[in-house]
Specification:
alpha+beta; Arc Repressor Mutant, subunit A; Glutaredoxin; 2 domains; seven-stranded mixed beta sheet; two-stranded antiparallel sheet; 13 strands; 18% strand; globular
Length: 322
């Protein structure tokens, strides 16, 4: 396929749109970031024709956004992975998500939460049964850390950020619905950590603040559990976690995921209107996840638990050489 080049050679926006301006192209990047790296997986997720998908993949490889890497010799099979240039598009995807949530699917209000019956909440609860792709996020001490622990359960609680260690967050922060309570939530997790350990669970917090800010927060509050930085938006994009933009940065909305050691999301708590009460709710979520792990999609009070597993990478059973 011959692509028409945009003539405005001095405009970076125009030249970027020359590569990713087609909506199918950005959706391909979105789903590769989610862990769907094989042709058949992408075709199934996107519902796009093989011809269109072939053209978009070829363009993205040609422009250096994706890398084509063989994973089978007989028959020849390939997967598509993000390059550095491709990972550079993650903030673009999150910016589009934020804009769509606020101005297209919302009423334009800046908020750090959402209504329980909203499309955003439905999308988050639909994570139950999906597998978290393999990735590592920097911890507060800059060590790469897997967001999924080796214990039976991982409680991954996402929070917007602490204004106590980032002064730029403070002006107007109290007026953002759902923004307050990060310190109280962290202290409550700290104080009830023995109960999570008794349940076979590791608690880990994740936020888009920089590792050094998380280190200050952990030291100030004497937090014994890891805080991970998703400053590069890898986890946000992989799971399409709800975000908002404040103080010049993309922030995670407050939510809790319960993961098993196979990296499968077994429980979701969203929205979280009461940060302190969310800790008790997380403990209850572990109990429900363990008790009804074989039951399809039960839902109680804004929490979803124990749906069937939907693996990120399915076997490529087509005869395609992609």
């Amino acid at each position: 396929m011959k692509y028409n080049r945009i003539a405005d050679s001095d405009c970076s926006i125009a030249q970027a749109l020359d590569v990713v301006g087609d909506w199918w192209t950005l959706l391909v990047v979105r789903d590769v970031a989610r862990g769907h790296t094989r042709f058949s997986d992408l075709a199934a997720e996107l519902g796009v024709s093989r011809k269109v998908l072939t053209e978009r993949l070829a363009l993205l490889v040609e422009r250096g956004v994706l890398e084509r890497r063989p994973y089978s010799d007989r028959p020849p099979r390939y997967e598509y992975l993000l390059t550095d240039a491709g990972r550079g598009l993650l903030p673009v995807l999150i910016a589009l998500q934020n804009w769509g949530s606020r101005y297209v699917m919302g009423d334009g209000t800046l908020t750090a939460t959402s209504a329980r019956e909203s499309a955003e909440a439905r999308r988050v609860h639909a994570l139950v049964g999906t597998r978290v792709p393999a990735l590592h996020l920097p911890a507060a001490d800059n060590r790469p850390c897997d967001p999924v622990a080796a214990t039976r359960w991982t409680v991954l609680y996402c929070f917007p950020g602490s204004p106590s260690v980032e002064p730029g967050l403070a002006p107007g922060w109290d007026e953002v619905p759902g923004g307050r309570g990060c310190t109280l939530e962290a202290r409550t997790f700290r104080d009830r950590l023995p109960e999570f350990a008794a349940a076979g669970a590791t608690v880990q917090g994740v936020c888009t603040q920089r590792p050094e800010l998380l280190a200050c927060f952990a030291e100030a509050e004497d937090l014994p559990f890891p805080l991970l930085s998703d400053q590069q938006l890898e986890l946000c994009t992989a799971l399409r976690l709800p975000t908002f933009r404040a103080a010049g940065s993309d922030r995670l909305k407050r939510l809790i995921l319960v993961l098993d050691r196979a990296r499968v999301v077994r429980g979701v708590l969203y929205p979280v209107p009461d940060p302190a009460a969310s800790v008790a709710a997380a403990l209850a979520l572990i109990d429900r996840s363990a008790a009804i792990a074989s039951v399809d999609g039960a839902s109680v009070d804004g929490a979803s638990v124990a749906a069937p597993t939907r693996p990120v990478g399915r076997a490529d059973t087509t005869r395609s050489r992609h």
